[in-house]
Structures are given as structure tokens and as C-alpha cells.
Amino acid sequence: MRLMIVVSLLINVAVLVPVCAGLLSNASWTTSAYGEATPARAILLSVYMAIGLCSVLLLIRREPKAVAALLLVQVLYKVTTPLTVGTVNNPVVVSNLIVAVFHAATLACLWAGGALGRSTDDRPAG
Questions:
Q1: Is residue 124 part of a domain?
Q2: Is position 72 within any domain?
Q3: Which residue from 37, 71, 82, 108 puts its CA 20 to 30 A from 100's CA?
């Protein structure tokens, strides 16, 4: 389980460092993958940088519940990209789906291994 956490977080860093650098520098490949530089693309860059920073911090201090929250949000947005983009013939969509499969496996390991523990919701049931 620890290995899966580390690998998922390292995947985030390994993917996001060059992607963020490319978006920041407006590298030529970013236009074909992400479109022209727009405010929406800049917002996406902010989201990517936040995910990257959280991943680095969680590599330093591994908190399974925080890792699970980060990975769950990523899996959800990554599996919906074919729907929002309207195709699977985009390199970002393809890489999102590949990363989502691995992150989903990490989430399954966290769940099965009991690392997520019991709910901290102390409200009465019903």
C-alpha cells in the first residue's frame, strides 16, 4: 500500500512538472494538447500546480486520507475528460485515463488495506 501511494504521487510529480513547465513557457506542444493560451488554460495550470504541490507535500508527510482525497478528485476529473473534451483522440485525455487507472488501483489498495479507517462523521445516523 505504501508503495502504491508513493508511485501515485510520483506519477503526479513526473507528469505535472514538465506539463506545468510547458504551459508556463507556452511550449509549442502545449497548443496542440491544450489549445491556445487562454484564461481557462491558465486556470488549468493553477489546478495542476496545486495538485503537484500537494503531491510533493504528501510525499514528505504521507497521510492516507489526504492522499485518498487528492487521488479521488483526480480520478473523477480524469475519467470525465473524454466527455468534456468530446474525444479520446487527445494526448491529455489518453494520459488522464492511464493515470486514473493507476490512481484508482491505489485508492482500492487504501480502502482494502483499512488505511482510510472509519468515518469521522459523528452525526447520529438516520
A1: no
A2: yes
A3: 37
